[in-house]
């Protein structure tokens, strides 16, 4: 089986909801499963985007840092890139882009989208790192910085998850962005227009990795939480 057909995921979005924010995989370990990806650091320490095997972190101050091998993450997606051209787009909003891509592919499998081009009125966020005892995802995510650019060239890296996996991941699209100049990026909250080329990589296998050596995770009772509601509020 080709490794390029496998999406690797460490942790779940559900475990972030009650505040299980320990870093449970190192960047070195994550990069063994892909050269492309997204994630967040321990304590929701910024927003990660991995391109061409280089892991970039957009921190709470808006700085873009290349992180070390020992940087840890509670949640991440990664895969080995083998994108194929899908289409070109011109001045499509985030909602329009999502709709166009959705009409060209299946909603029932995982895939990654990479859009390189010019983005106008793009809004991103990055969360400030928190420390133990961690608050909930909703509370921790309140301490976020919002970044805006009227026009910027860069790469939108996105993962699409089928709705039946909502909770393990974000059902639908999860977009991160990095500017070509490496001076802007983060978790995408929206954009007015995307102009550029769209590539797609479809997966037939989800490799879900859980932090079984983390006692807080192994002993936690999720039954009292509205996990999906909390995720949708935070994302």
Automatic annotation (TrEMBL):
<protein>
    <recommendedName>
        <fullName>Alpha-acetolactate decarboxylase</fullName>
        <ecNumber>4.1.1.5</ecNumber>
    </recommendedName>
</protein>
<dbReference type="GO" id="GO:0045151">
    <property type="term" value="P:acetoin biosynthetic process"/>
</dbReference>
<dbReference type="GO" id="GO:0047605">
    <property type="term" value="F:acetolactate decarboxylase activity"/>
</dbReference>
<dbReference type="Pfam" id="PF03306">
    <property type="entry name" value="AAL_decarboxy"/>
</dbReference>
<comment type="pathway">
    <text>Polyol metabolism; (R,R)-butane-2,3-diol biosynthesis; (R,R)-butane-2,3-diol from pyruvate: step 2/3.</text>
</comment>
<comment type="similarity">
    <text>Belongs to the alpha-acetolactate decarboxylase family.</text>
</comment>
<keyword id="KW-0005">Acetoin biosynthesis</keyword>
<dbReference type="InterPro" id="IPR005128">
    <property type="entry name" value="Acetolactate_a_deCO2ase"/>
</dbReference>
<keyword id="KW-0210">Decarboxylase</keyword>
<keyword id="KW-0456">Lyase</keyword>
